[in-house]
Amino acid sequence: MDFELLYGIVKIILIATTPLVFAGIGELVTEKSGVLNLGVEGMMLVGAVTAFVTLVITGNYILAFTFSILSGVIMSSLFAFLVLILMSNQIATGLALTIFGIGLSSMIGKNYIGTPIEGLSPWFFVIFSFVIVFFISYFFYKTKAGLILRAVGESHNSAHALGYGVLKIRFCSIIFGGAMCALAGSYMSICYAPMWQENMTAGRGWIALALVVFATWKPGRILIGAYIFGGVSILQMNFQAWGLSLPGQFFNMAPYLATLIVLVLISSNKLRVKLSAPASLTIPFFKGR
Amino acid sequence: MIKLYKLLLLSLTFFVFSLGSAYADPKKVGFIYIGPPGDHGWTYMHDVGRKHMQSQLGDAVTSTYIENVPENADAVRAIRKLASSGHDLIFTTSFNYMDQTLEVAKEFPNVKFEHATGYKRADNVSTYSARFYEGRTISGHIAGHMTKTNTIGYIASFPIPEVVRGINAFYLAASKVNPDIKIKIIWAFTWYDPGKEADAANTLINQGADILVQHTDTFAPCQAAEKAGVLAFGQASNQEEFCPNAHLTAIEDIWGPYYAARAQAVVDGTWSSEDTWDGMAEGMVVMSPYNTKLMPASLIQEAINMEVAIKDGKLHSFEGPIYNQAGELMVAEGEVADDGMLAGMNWYVQGIDGELPQ
Amino acid sequence: MNKFIPIIISRPQSSNLMNVLVPVIAVILTLLTGSIIFSIMGFNPFFALHTFFISPISTSYGISELLVKATPLALIAIGLAFCFKNNIYNIGAEGQLTMGAIFGGGIGIYFYDTNAFWLLPLMILGGAIGGALWAMIPALLKTKFNTNEILTSLMLVYVALLILDYLVVGPWKDPLGYSFPKTRQFSESGRMPLLFAGLRVHFGLIITLVLIFFSWFIFSKTIFGFQLKVSGYSPTAARYAGFSQNILVYLAFGICGAFAGIAGLSEVSGPIGLLYRDISPNYGFTAIIVAFLGRLHPIGIIFASLIIALTYLGAEDAQLFMQIPAAVGFVFQGLILFYLLGADLLVNYKLEFNK
Asked: How many degrees, rounded to 5, is the angle at CA C352 between CA C347 and CA C353?
């Protein structure tokens, strides 16, 4: 195989995988603090449409990404308010957030479908996705704040007893997750496939959720997992183009099956699970008696 | 005296006219869409057709649509809602509305139904589709001349006859002018996923394709071609504004005249159940303006001549001899594939590599 | 200063008054928000709300459609209650529904030219088994390997959908269907009988009601129901009381999967009549919301399924009669859910001001 071809394949994999890394690392931080947000897809869509519409109106890329991230912050604050303050069920609220996000993004983008824009080069964001993963990794394992965040996800009662503001920390983690999901969405509508179309994230939010588990809640592994997911999908396209026939459905199944296998492998070793999965995931915290 | 007479006549005419219009209520025409009308692909072109019908028939019709109707049990309710709210003619514009359309039609014998791309009819259900493959023949001819790498990338959605027909028609025409041509096909198994369509486009370009053909819904492949500096054909609508330096031409679905004619038939009371499969001759399949910046004038002229030949019936997309991949003769020399064979086409013609996913 | 900040106090028992009052408050809030949104959009709010909530069910056909839509939601939600009560977060009902449709529907396709009384019962059984088997995977992984069921069950949804995809595109394709991705139609005796001529509400509704009653009986009258509840509150206590948590996990998943499978089968053999790619508009996911809105209680789930079903129908009517895009329906639905979920606080907790 010649180098040129290989280089091209790697480039395509990098571009295609970056949104998974952003959404995955965002959701990972949220989950590490003990909150499961199933609204990833909804937040990505709102982020994507906000960036696109802002860009069409202002023509300014920086504004587009800023507003997009802001939209993720607002969407996730809504979620945080419901699950942290009103203590609503996280799973149901996350699903409702996705429904809401699908509707809201289509509503906002109604008149912008098919508006041509000048796409932005993806490479800054591809590099940034690596930087953010290393930053989060550093934050978790080398800083006190990261340790506290993990402690909150592990046992909110102990963390509270030690005097840490559980809700405050969770709120910040949820918002970070929202911002990253929105960034993933805006990357899609501005760099990856520069356009706005309803539901254009096409299920990537759900893959990001799988990714967090696949990564066993470890930031570095988000990268590995995302690149396996993205790589499998691009490689099967290459196989097809080379004339090898393989049922596409089974290739599409691969990320999910791989996640299942990893889940089984990591959880069959009880010690390792204890070290990775946040023990308080989906369990609400309330101060009162 | 004459003046008075004229005035009387005028007011009488006016009276009769207003009476007439008061009694002849406008016919209501309803549409069921699979996607949003702004998708710049399949649904968009149906909505363009609806607007054309509206402008042609003016006050004689009013039109409504329901968008994003899923292709499951919900479709029956949506279609029935149109039928029961006084619609006289209902177009259901996606294949998987077939059984649902028939189910509602049985219950509303006085309402006329038109189902796009299906094959089941009833006394009050017509079917209609377009011979998009005629356009593929012209794209294939152009691609055969324009390619430098002799490699064409084809992004396909699902292995249904509609898509397979397109691939075969394209390859037959392309290999006729350029026997060395190779066609690389990626089945995306989706109609709609801009990211995946872009991935497929980039993969094909990376594997040496210098012209992209798509049978999926968004303009992502065309954009990818523009970025990579290769050529592409648009799908369903003219996509030149999204990729001015890549867009050779596009196969446009023009539903407007058909919609106007069928609505007119309902207004006139002459509607009957029919099976329509129209192509270029009837104006249902139209090639977008050929890109003069990219194509030599002689090739554009050839393409236009081919259009005329197809319209006149002198050129057919599937002229024998045609062999399948196993080398079996499917269409004999001097014959053309009949509509039955085209409708159920689930094999590749000889020369295409790879296996058709079954 | 602290005087004015309310403190959230957990109620020892969920308040009965609030149980009734909260949904009412949520509905009132939704109506208020709705009127504001529609006024801003330039619609008469009364007309809009009427279109959304009244006009879809103003005919017998409309009510029948409401039931058609609510049937799978309620059936899956009550199955989910078995899991959720035991703190088992099975969110893969959509996959179990799909497997039920594949197993039961597969029987229907195999006997496509057979008309016999036993066909439908066999298909229903197949649906239940398909759903239950699919649910056994996360159950097995949870008990054997301690694997988190939220994620395994979610992953299996996509695997099931792709298996269905493979079958209808490939081996189960209708040989007379011009290669379109759909199967043959089931024979007449493989279809759910209609309850009223001309209306689509079908026998699946009766099955659902029977199973809801059955569930109510189990929840409130049997030891198993008690065990579910106890082990949900405190697994340790349950262990001391001699319950095998593993058996509870298998039972909860099995029942939930079977119910979802039956829901899937009743959808394909009811209004659809064959298999193709998009058999369910996310019933399995929407049912999770229904289950929580209904507070895992049979009566609550019935009401919740009707409310959610109504929001779907309302969104369609709003499109048709007000030319409101489908998306607005989703936004509105999301808002209703937020209010209902958020208002739960008042049921389980009370606010107290420092004295």
From this structure: 155
The C-alpha atoms of residue A238 and residue A232 are separated, in whole angstroms, by 10
Q: Sign of torsion, CA C63 C65 C67 C73?
A: negative
Per-residue model confidence as pLDDT tens digits over A204-254: 998 898 888 888 889 999 999 899 888 888 888 898 888 876 666 676 777
Residues B148 and B226 in one domain: yes
Q: Which of C69, C108, C76, C84 is nearest to C257 (CA)?
A: C76
| Residue A147 within any structural domain of the chain | yes
Q: Are residues B165 and B197 in the same domain?
A: yes
Least reliable range by pLDDT among A174-183, C211-220, C331-340: C331-340
Q: Please count the CA atoms within 13 angstroms of the CA of A132 that sit on its side-chain side.
A: 25
What domains are there in chain C, each with its CATH number?
58-323 (1.10.3470)
Interfacial A residues in 191-250 facing C (CB < 8 Å) = 198, 206, 209-210, 213, 247, 249-250
| Straight-line distance from the first to the last Cα atom of chain B, in angstroms, rounded to the nearest whole number | 83
What pLDDT, on a 0 to 100 scale, did the predictor assign at position C349? 65
Both B141 and B80 in a single domain? no
Q: Are residues B115 and B30 in the same domain?
A: yes
Q: Do C178 and B66 touch (CB under 8 A)?
A: no
Give me the number of domains chain B comprises.
Answer: 2
C-alpha torsion angle, residues A154, A158, A162, A167 (rounded to 10)? 60
Residue B272 within a domain? yes
Closest C-alpha to B250, from B208, B207, B212, B206: B212
pLDDT digits (tens, 9 = 90+) for C217-268: 998 888 888 777 777 666 666 666 666 778 889 999 999 999 999 999 999 9
Looking up residue A173, the CATH number of its domain turns out to be: 1.10.3470
Unique residue bearing structure tokens 């209004």: C271
Q: What's CA C322's distance to the chain center, in Å?
A: 29
How many distinct structural domains can be found in chain A? 1
List the single residue in C158, C289, C334 with the smallest CB-CB distance to A256: C158
The Cα C189–Cα C230 span in angstroms is 43
What is the enclosing helix (H) or strand (E) of B198?
helix B194-206
Tens digits of per-residue pLDDT, A72-126? 999 999 999 999 988 888 888 998 999 899 999 988 888 888 788 888 999 999 9
Same domain? For B155 and B196 the reply is: yes
Cα separation, C292 vs A87, in Å, equals 13
Summarised one tens digit per residue, pLDDT across range C276-313 is 888 898 899 999 989 988 888 999 899 989 988 998 88
Under 8 Å CB-to-CB from C292, ≥6 apart: which residues? Answer: A89, A91, A92, C84, C341, C344
Q: Is C164 exposed, middle or buried (0-12, 13-18, 19+ CB in 10 A)?
A: buried
Q: What does the block give as tokens for B96? A: 């998987």
Q: Is residue B348 part of a domain?
A: no
- Chain A with chain B: Cβ pairs closer than 8 A: 110
Q: Report the complex ipTM.
A: 0.89
A288: left (phi over 0), alpha (psi -120 to 50) or beta: beta
pLDDT of residue B257: 94
Mutate one of C320, C321, C322 to test the B interface: name it (highest B CB count within 10 A). C320
Whether residue A284 is contained in a domain is answered as no
Whether A88 and C331 lie within 8 Å, measured CB to CB: no
Residue A287 maps to a domain: no
Which tens digits make up the pLDDT trace of B231-283? 999 988 888 888 999 999 999 999 999 999 999 999 999 999 999 999 999 99
Residue B57 lies in domain: 25-130+255-278
> C135-149: per-residue pLDDT in tens?
999 999 888 887 878
Decide if C292 and A92 are in contact by the 8 Å CB cutoff.
yes
Say which DSSP state B71 is in: S
DSSP symbol at B192: -
